[in-house]
């Protein structure tokens, strides 16, 4: 496999450095960490072409995974989105598909706000506890290499079961295309916060919203990491980055859900409309005008 995320450090370093050099001339592209890469990888990129965000702390970076920027942003989106739901965040039941760097921190921040994490999954299976999972203990178990389904604080289930448990909030926080129209089944959640990129197909999103499920699209809900990286690239501190995440995600989530409600369009259509409006407004300041 080319680009195997489980490759040895030596193999991964060679690939990352080669990829960085291949894109040396693409100066509008700034590298940042994602699945299979981390702050160390961004350090290699910076060493090659001096153009990366999400750097190790030793290089002046804001450690995204350690601080949980994306998970924090999801918790902010949740605070706004529940205003459009028939339940409160405090006491809300949450299921998280993908208990990795995004899911772990989303669970932590939401628990601090009073939500109850009742189901989580990783590639090995699902852990379900209708009362509440001890997230601190599960995180410690996971950090030691344990699978979530092997944790003693709940019922072990198939890994896809996390998508269909009785819950108020569902957070896909791993891979794309987790749900399609053909795999929706008996989906029960009332609010979706997309922690992963394109975790739900467009036709499935439309179907879910026709069932009155509130949906906050990926590039609105999971933008915390990107915002943090952008603030880091501009020389901001972690405190400044988290302030920006709070402000931007709160504003954008509300704007998208208001547009969706007012115009009778899906949340994704509203998000794309908002993005285009802002891009066109920015392009009006350019010498050659709107593209």
Q: What features would you describe in this structure?
A:
This protein is an alpha/beta fold and about 290 residues long. The protein has 2 domains: about 1-60, no CATH class; about 70-225 and about 250-260, Rossmann fold. About 45% of the residues lie in helices and about 10% in strands. It is built from 11 helices and 7 strands. It has helices at about 10-20, 40-50, 65, 70-80, 100-110, 135-145, 200-210, 220, 225-235, 240-265, 265-285, and strands at about 95, 115-120, 125-130, 155, 170, 190-195, 215. It has a 7-stranded mixed β-sheet with strand order 4-3-2-1-5-6-7, with helices on both faces. Strand 1 (about 95), helix 5 (about 100-110) and strand 2 form a beta-alpha-beta unit. Helix 1 packs across helix 2, helix 4 crosses helix 9 (about 225-235) and helix 4 (about 70-80) runs parallel beside helix 10 (about 240-265). It is globular. The termini are far apart. The model has no long low-confidence stretch (mean pLDDT about 95).
CATH superfamily of the largest domain: NAD(P)-binding Rossmann-like Domain
- For the record, the CATH class of the largest domain is Alpha Beta
CATH architecture assignment of the largest domain: 3-Layer(aba) Sandwich
Distance between the termini: 39 Å
Low-pLDDT residue spans: none
Strand order in the largest sheet:
4-3-2-1-5-6-7
Q: Can you give the mean pLDDT?
A: 93
Strand coverage percent: 5-15%
Q: Level of helix content?
A: 40-55%
H/E series, N to C? HHHHEHEEHEEEHEHHHH
Main sheet specs: 7 strands, mixed
């Amino acid at each position: 496999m080319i680009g195997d995320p489980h490759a040895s450090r030596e193999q991964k370093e060679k690939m990352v450095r080669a990829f960085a050099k291949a894109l040396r001339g693409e100066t509008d592209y700034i590298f940042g960490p994602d699945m299979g890469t981390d702050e160390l990888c961004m350090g290699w990129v910076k060493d090659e072409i001096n153009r990366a965000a999400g750097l190790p702390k030793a290089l002046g970076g804001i450690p995204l995974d350690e601080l949980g920027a994306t998970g924090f942003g999801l918790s902010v989106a949740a605070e706004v989105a529940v205003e459009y739901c028939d339940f409160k965040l405090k006491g809300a039941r949450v299921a998280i598909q993908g208990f990795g760097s995004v899911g772990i921190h989303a669970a932590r921040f939401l628990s601090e706000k009073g939500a109850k994490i009742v189901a989580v999954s990783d590639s090995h299976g699902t852990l379900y506890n209708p009362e509440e999972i001890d997230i601190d203990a599960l995180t410690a178990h996971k950090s030691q290499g344990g699978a979530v389904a092997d944790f003693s604080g709940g019922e072990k289930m198939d890994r896809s079961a996390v998508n269909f448990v009785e819950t108020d909030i569902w957070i896909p926080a791993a891979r794309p295309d987790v749900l399609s129209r053909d795999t929706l089944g008996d989906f029960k959640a009332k609010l979706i916060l997309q922690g992963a990129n394109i975790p739900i197909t467009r036709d499935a999103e439309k179907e879910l919203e026709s069932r009155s499920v509130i949906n906050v699209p990926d590039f609105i809900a999971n933008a915390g990491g990107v915002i943090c990286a952008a603030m880091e690239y501009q020389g901001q501190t972690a405190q400044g980055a988290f302030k920006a995440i709070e402000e931007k995600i709160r504003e954008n989530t509300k704007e998208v859900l208001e547009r969706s409600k007012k115009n009778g369009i899906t949340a994704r259509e509203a998000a794309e409309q908002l993005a285009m409006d802002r891009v066109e407004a920015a392009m009006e300041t350019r010498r050659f005008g709107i593209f």
